[in-house]
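Q: Structure for this?
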Amino acid sequence: MIDKIFATPEAALADVPDGATVMIGGFGNAGMPSELIDCLIAQGAKELTVINNNAGNADAGLAALIGAGRVRKILCSFPRQADSWHFDKLYRAGKLELELVPQGTLAERIRAAGAGIGGFFTPTAFGTRLAEGKETRHINGRDYVLEHPIHADYALIKADRADRWGNLSYRKTARNFGPIMAAAAKCTVAQVRETVELGELDPESVVTPGIFVKRVVRLATLRKAP
Amino acid sequence: MIDKIFATPEAALADVPDGATVMIGGFGNAGMPSELIDCLIAQGAKELTVINNNAGNADAGLAALIGAGRVRKILCSFPRQADSWHFDKLYRAGKLELELVPQGTLAERIRAAGAGIGGFFTPTAFGTRLAEGKETRHINGRDYVLEHPIHADYALIKADRADRWGNLSYRKTARNFGPIMAAAAKCTVAQVRETVELGELDPESVVTPGIFVKRVVRLATLRKAP
Amino acid sequence: MKKLDRHQIAARVARDIPDGAYVNLGIGLPTLVANHIPKDREIVLHSENGILGLGPKPAAGTEDEDLIDAGKTPATALPGASYFHHADSFGMIRGGHIDICVLGAFQVAANGDIANWHTGEADAIPAVGGAMDLAAGAKQVFVTMEHLTKKGESKIVERCSYPLTGVRCVTRIYTDLAVIEVKADGLYLVEIVAEGLSFDELQRLNGVPLKYRAAA
Amino acid sequence: MKKLDRHQIAARVARDIPDGAYVNLGIGLPTLVANHIPKDREIVLHSENGILGLGPKPAAGTEDEDLIDAGKTPATALPGASYFHHADSFGMIRGGHIDICVLGAFQVAANGDIANWHTGEADAIPAVGGAMDLAAGAKQVFVTMEHLTKKGESKIVERCSYPLTGVRCVTRIYTDLAVIEVKADGLYLVEIVAEGLSFDELQRLNGVPLKYRAAA
């Protein structure tokens, strides 16, 4: 029987090794799996490469992971925020590598990884500093830049509801990077508000089919965690 | 005010010119916009290039369009069916050009058109006859074939429900090519079982946002058409 | 001469957005455009974090942390709205489905190049977000900005000195002094919006030569 | 010797599909595999026309024209099923998320090449469907076929003479005579399934040399 619902978040993250590449869902705080990140901090993995749209806000979630010195490199589109002090400090000190990627290219590179695409030509960033050194091509009257997929070992995402097969639904704009990160990582761990019986999620409205999800943790379980 | 619901199918298809490239949704009969195709036959446009997964079944829908001699070229993955006699006859007579595309490559090329991707590397068909003459590349230990987007002038698709903004929901496996064709065509015409008031479709479950749809025709209207 | 204020620039942009348009408004001044859409026009706002049909700001106390706009501030959804993931959202942008995006800018060049993401300072932390995708993907790119820097230099230039966001993509420029159209053969004046500003004076202030636009 | 029939081949394949696997079954013999999954295993069937969690055939009179499988025959959906569009469905295949696909074949080569879409006849109407995507994308490609052609020639060959569907992708071959594993250094016999068939006789019938598989 398939049952992807984990009793404890510790078990769901126990095998994240040092040096892992970890996608973290969310755009700002919407869809950010903050409680899972807290568990990852407690778990202790270090030298991580993190993929997220931002580089953390204030002192919680991704910012706390960065502040704890666990991140070696971050791929994101918008690190600079009024309250991104943990990132700012380590980046300025040369202790945190940054790969800046336009937001749509970031999303498409993640999508490409999940969909088995080896590379794609995008018009975004052509002629700019972010395309320097990259292969370009003129196709049908337009200029494009060649970009490659971003794969990950783990994806930590936040969804709304899940069943034991790992099917996920999301809430409003908290959907953002969740569905594409789920497909791009070898092991996707989803924190959800609630779990429901198999068959309760409308098959027309499942946004992430369970095939992309390895582990599900309920928020209530997470909040009980140390 | 935005109101994409057309009173008559004739008006929705009136401007399809000879020589147009037309995507037609459906996988077999599921999601095939048969009534809309009948209107296209009545409308009379010829020398069409058609994109569909198949090349028509029996004497209805796409098969009838082909049988009426309106199609110059077809891009599809699986033309040969027990009942694809209209296609078979014209193809064997050299009166119908065929571009055979693996099904997933067909879907991805259509998706690329809608998403502004200029080309992509896929592992599908590498080393086969269908990749002959195409650029290939070895990326991260794997061989890929370069494929390009398929754009269309029109997409004729079948959905389940629509509102006046053109938002669409689908039914079960009739979804198939609808959402990606809607995004890949300059003018997407959707036939729907019913139209509902704006706000009645759950924003979490809209599969094709209205931005991709120009015209909506109710099935009841289609059935009244000549 | 009396320059337009931010709200007046936003209102001037709103006048040019047709009924039924799909529009993405950048952060800052562009966001203000939403407040000035004429009541008889139905405009569908796209926010790149995954919503089409963005509504007005929520009333205090009704904010939902799962419903925000691209500026990460609380938002609402109109009837007819839809949610989608980031790859679909940027596919919408890149695929040319957004009719108009409105962006702020440091500089715009006479050929339509735009610079709005990086000051070029060596120690600045770079951040680009969705600006390059919008610049490359939207059917029309409207830029709103003050015409002159604090030092009085034109932000409309022959060639951008700041790092580029996109090449040959800007179609219109809305400043506190004028509305300017970018065409293949140069910049065309659509309208002087600052009260008491003559064409000659605007020409003197503007970084590059302006042409009169032929009546439509 | 007593060869396996189609149902017995399907049952033999089913034995090797582990609990919790995501599986795509091709048209024809592969479809029969679903009937033989042991009751204590939960297998999730994928159909490339956009469903995960395919159920058994519907009862007569309960067919739904909007719910079909890749063979275009009426299907059902299990609790836990989900629907998606074609690009997402083939992304799932191409992205390596399908654990096992089961395909029929005209020929399989010793290096794992498969030919199953075209007889190579000049006047044949070609049709490929999703076969090339499945061959290239699934984590494991199981082939089911009769071991020999009607003329008695081996369908397992040194090099395919029919046009290829995919290169170096087949991982296991299930025939009416044997189960064979394809490894980088050649073909390994897993099991002789035809009653009364000796290794030497199988080796004689098989197109290319077979090795005994070392015990796991």
